[in-house]
Amino acid sequence: MIPAPQAFPNHSVWLPTLGAASVAPFPLAPLYFGKGLPGMRITRRRNAIVLSITLGACLVALAIAQNVIWVIINWRSLILLVVGVLFFLALIAGLILNTIFLVREVKRSERHDSFLNAVTHELKTPITSIRLYLETLLRHEVPEAQRKEFYDIMLSDSERLLATVEQVLKAGEIGQRGRNQVRLQLQFDEVVRDCIRTTLQRYHLKESTIQFTVDPDAEQLAVVGNPEDLRTAVLNILDNAVKYSPQGPQLEVHLALDGDAWMMLSVSDHGLGIAPLHLKRIFKRFYRVPARNVFRIKGTGLGLFLVRSIARQHGGDVVAESEGEGRGATIRLQLPRALSSKEAR
Questions:
Q1: Which helix or strand (DSSP H or E) is residue 133 part of?
Q2: Which helix (H) or strand (E) holds 18?
Q3: CATH says 184-344 is which class?
């Protein structure tokens, strides 16, 4: 038996263990990078929020006390009373706005830290896995069957690494308003089918895992847009549905017309679901539902943000629906339909 390469004890990777017949990978503990644990930084952020709110409340109470004392002393002077009240209201408004700003900045910084930790994990894990497999191939004689399996695993890790890099680059590209876009007319149902095939291959799923249906009354399903961007949007929706179905994904994908000028793509899963409070927030940059374990479910918090950005750049929009946690979710992507020559008349 050929010994397996030494692993790093804190890396979440798939390690090759060579036996007589097969490879037996096993997951290790999650990765933690940087100074301190993410939970410690989040706790400090929450303490900063509490401190900001407490300070703001104290300042408001002090301002109220000063204003009451001033009114009691100068109640006979009507002009001074009016000026003082206006000044007091302006001061209170400034304190409230300042507190809101501080809380938002702390939350934004918290999301940014979570994003950095997630990206670091997503980049480091496949690199470590590929390196371990390569070291095994260099140091030991591996049977041809196992060698081919190693190559398949390394290829899968490299694709995962590439997907993470492309997602981060796409998020930066989407933010550039003046970027040049190549827009073509294409059949959106073919784009969806291609994305489904990619998702099945990426997660090694059976074809029955994703049920795709098209409204039989939908004759013209063409859309004018950037092929790469639209493909990114659909892939991110499917990827999100698969990842948040830990008990085994079972997706229903439906494409139909929504009136005369729109088409609607609906992707439903039976996974973790989304609490009503987070249905709109999940489309923000870097946002991930706090109740979910960031390291248990891979992600950067950019997927649905990209979906919304791409949809709006194409004149559409996206919404999320869920009956609550543990009851699945549905993402609906609405896009303007390219009208045929007869319909245009």
A1: helix 78-139
A2: none
A3: alpha beta
Q: What is the Cα–Cα distance from 150 to 270, expressed in whole angstroms?
A: 33
For residue range 96-129, what is the model confidence (pLDDT) as tens digits? 888 888 888 877 777 777 777 777 777 888 898 8
For the record, the structure tokens of 86 come out as: 């206006």
C-alpha to C-alpha distance for 241 and 153, rounded to whole angstroms: 23
> Tokens 């990842």 correspond to what residue?
243
Sign of the torsion formed by the C-alpha atoms of 178, 183, 189 and 190: negative
What is the C-alpha separation between 68 and 85, in angstroms, rounded? 10
pTM above 0.90, yes or no: no
CATH 3.30.565.10 positions along the chain are 184-344
Chain segment 287-302, per-residue pLDDT in tens:
888 765 444 677 778 8
Degrees to nearest 5, angle at CA 121 with 116 and 125: 155
